[in-house]
Amino acid sequence: MGMKKSDKSVTLMDVAKRAGVGVGTASRVLNKDPRVKESTKQAVHQAMADLNYKPNSVARGLKTGMSKTFGVIVSDITSSFFSKIIKGIEATSAENQYSFMMANTDMNPDKVTDAIRLMGEKMVEGIFMLGEIVTVDIIEQLERMDIPVVLVSMNIPMIGKGLPKNFASVSINNERAAFCAVDYMCSIGCRKIAMLMTDMDDQNVGKARYDGYRKALKAHGIQHEDCLVISGDLSMESGYDCMKRLLDDGIVPDAVFAASDYAAFGAMRLLHERKIRIPEDISVIGFDGVEQGKYSYPSLTTINQPRYQMGKVGMQLMMDMIQKKEILNREVLLQYEFNERESCLKKAEDTGNQG
């Protein structure tokens, strides 16, 4: 006869796994939800007995079967890009008397996995994923949670079959927005346009922005050059380093499209250090619309994402799924804005010698 686990080490996720159900279903059994089938209740109670599981005080206090809590997993909690989204989530969650717990992952898949597990143990009713690069294993882990998941400003193209049934997403059309930015650069006479992007293997928003860049060049009859595309990440440090690598290789573009405002700020810093004028020598466009772009020198032309609205719409999707309302569109695309500022300048036309 096998020994039972210590009740201190057993989690609701262990119970759910042994019973062959999702964590959300096990939680509903624990809270005496009348909608759960009798056979499912018996399986969960048997698993609890087998594992010597003792519900914690939070679970015992859930009279309605609802924790009124959800989780927010964010790739960089220090980023003002995500803080605006979180404000939108918070505003709508307060209206619905919900609170949330947050986890910062630094784009580390192991931290994402740990955060999901912890939130499952805390019996959150849903999880927001903000800007993460997720693996198939993480998607499967979220599917097993059997609770609503809302993706904000991210894609999961590796699924290849649309969103899983318990998922919804809110974002912008990143490819079209990137096309808009590079199309503008071409329209003001730029022809040697560099792109500072994320890693080439990034299947998240980075790939969509790169595709938009390529399509805009093609639309203007400009040959794509691999040497003008520098991979890094979306940080200021990376933007600085990518711009340095470009110039140190003897490549001087007439425009730079950065896949984030922060990368653009880093590139602009390097250009200032090299005494290269913005926008007279090189025009720069960022992506995201963070507040600092209004006050950089020069002020940054950018694609402005409706971040606060993303948070509010994402929270409404979450509430609709929690309340099991019919959702006609689980993949919401919001409208972006193109903010033209001081970092771009129309190139003087080369009229040739007139004498």
UniProtKB/TrEMBL annotation:
Keywords associated with the record: DNA-binding, Transcription, Transcription regulation
CDD domains: HTH_LacI (cd01392)
One Pfam family it belongs to: LacI
Keyword Iron: no
InterPro entries: HTH_LacI, LacI/GalR-like_sensor, Lambda_DNA-bd_dom_sf, Peripla_BP_I
GO molecular function terms noted in the UniProt entry: DNA-binding transcription factor activity; transcription cis-regulatory region binding
Domain of life: Bacteria
Residue span, HTH lacI-type domain: 10-64
Keyword Transferase listed: no
Name this protein carries in UniProt: HTH lacI-type domain-containing protein
Organism: Enterocloster bolteae 90A9
